[in-house]
Amino acid sequence: MLDLIIKNASLPDGRTGVDIACQDGIITAVEAGITAEATEVIDAKGYLVSPPFVDPHFHMDATLSLGTPRMNVSGTLLEGIALWGELKPVQSVDDIIQRALRYCDLAVSMGLGAIRSHVDTCDDELKGVEALLEVREQVKDYIDLQLVAFPQDGVLRDPTAMANTLRALDMGVDVVGGIPHFERTMADGAESVRQLCEIAAERGLMVDMHCDESDDPHSRHIETLACESQRLGLQGRVAGSHLTSMHSMDNYYVSKLIPLMVEAGVHAIPNPLINIMLQGRHDTYPKRRGQTRVRELRDAGITVGFGSDCVMDPWYSMGTADMLDVAFMGLHVGQLSSREDMAWCFDAVTQNSAHIMGLEGYGIAKGCAANLVLLQARDKIEAIRLRADRLAVIRKGKVIARKQPSVSCLSLPGRPESLDPADYAPKSPT
Ligand SMILES: [Zn+2]
Description:
- By secondary structure, the chain is an alpha/beta fold.
- It has helices at 77-87, 93-109, 127-138, 161-171, 186-203, 221-231, 245-248, 251-264, 272-278, 294-299, 323-333, 339-347, 351-357, 380-386; strands spanning 2-9, 18-23, 26-31, 38-43, 48-50, 53-58, 112-120, 144-150, 175-176, 206-211, 238-242, 266-269, 372-375, 390-395, 398-402, 408-409, 418-419.
- 34% of the residues lie in helices and 20% in strands.
């Protein structure tokens, strides 16, 4: 007896009419017409079954704190950082734990299976670190939570940040973070990248830096990050988050920079919702979009994963833990409108981000972890267009969240009585 069979699924690779068998937390078969008995059988009715959504860039220590102690009036990144500085001393470890656990409930309902969260290490008490290490343990059966030691106020600019960042890594934080564009000078920014990459190399850790989250075309710390990745043999283990200055850089310089990133095996994590909200704030008109060069990075062979960054915190009042919202915004801002480009945006919130985080057993194939999401949509593009409902979220072969399909009842003379938004899929999607 199998634990679970999902019947008649469409898959992200375009296959349709597929059954998925799960046993002991593992996918044991992906093929048509599986006849074995199972404890639970789900009829997917031709809807899309995907591996879980993956958020490669988030701030779980700040999430759901919107309005505490006050709102961000200007809406800028810098007021957000100042506001976070006001909140840090007055919040308790338990406050952070409770907010994070509530967020994880929401994340599960939205089909998120893995989150990389930065955690602020510019706090001598390391309250966020203590809280999120506890949360990582509490949610491990339903979310893979990876933590990044993030010196928010600058690892060199803040006098105790380096010691606290090292202490956070000693306590079990997984990844080395940084914020070179927030250091006092360009030289300090480059030096911070060097020191932090050396720490990662010594400890055998991954690196993920907030890098060049600025409209300043001269903010070029991604160059140093790529160079250090190569020098220290960190290829494939380093990500640059945001990279928004690349939007404003000179094209000739970028023609040198992107090949350097390719050589260094550096990944890119744009955060479309936040980038379109926060960048271009010093512009009048025309106003820059401020999203990094997604298409060019992808076409060069760099792994690009979209992150959500913030949900209801000092920097961003919106957000519902919906990675399809993130893909939708990334698609629009990057003008990724061909069928191939739109389908790729789904990959940017699933498999690409799983690759960046180094998740094992991710995917829909025999031997992968039985972590799946049933979406009320026929394919990847439709899932983004509809920001489709998650009808079932499955972890290790067990359903951990369910939702009834969205069906509207109509009262219109001579028209259908009900409407399934997924029925509006194009007839010949290719
Ligand atoms: Zn961030």
